[in-house]
Design a protein that fits this description.
This protein is an alpha+beta fold and 125 residues long. It contains two helices and six strands.
Length: 125
């Protein structure tokens, strides 16, 4: 069962705006219809929000453990992507964030799912 309580955040080390991109190349979950493993890549792109304490970033080991908690979960691609976006948005409260999942092909079809939080700049693709 995916476990958002595994996620931890830390205050950004600077007060100036910047963008963070994390890429997890070995994401795994299960197809809820067949039970077969789904393999994909998860990209998290975000701008920490400014504040009295500065913005927040996700701690990488906690992100890794959180993503691994999907390994035995029967869940559709769209649900995975939106769940990751929602859990990270609650944790970090970023100015904006885009979560993209890029799934390996099965049956000749590949899927890419994008889920945004906040107004993602038009230059981000």
């Amino acid at each position: 069962m995916p476990d958002a309580s595994l996620l931890e955040a830390f205050a950004t080390p600077v007060d100036t705006p910047f963008v963070v991109e994390h890429v997890a190349e070995e994401f795994t979950s299960l197809c809820p219809k067949t039970g077969h493993p789904d393999f994909g890549e998860v990209r998290v792109l975000f701008e920490p929000a400014p504040g009295a304490q500065g913005g927040l970033c996700v701690e990488l080991k906690s992100l890794k453990l959180y993503l691994q908690s999907f390994r035995d979960e029967g869940i559709f691609y769209e649900a995975v992507t939106n769940r990751i976006r929602d859990d990270l948005a609650v944790l970090m409260r970023p100015n904006w964030m885009r979560v993209t999942t890029n799934w390996r092909g099965r049956g000749g079809i590949r899927s890419v799912i994008r889920a945004d939080h906040g107004p993602v700049p038009p230059t981000i693709d």
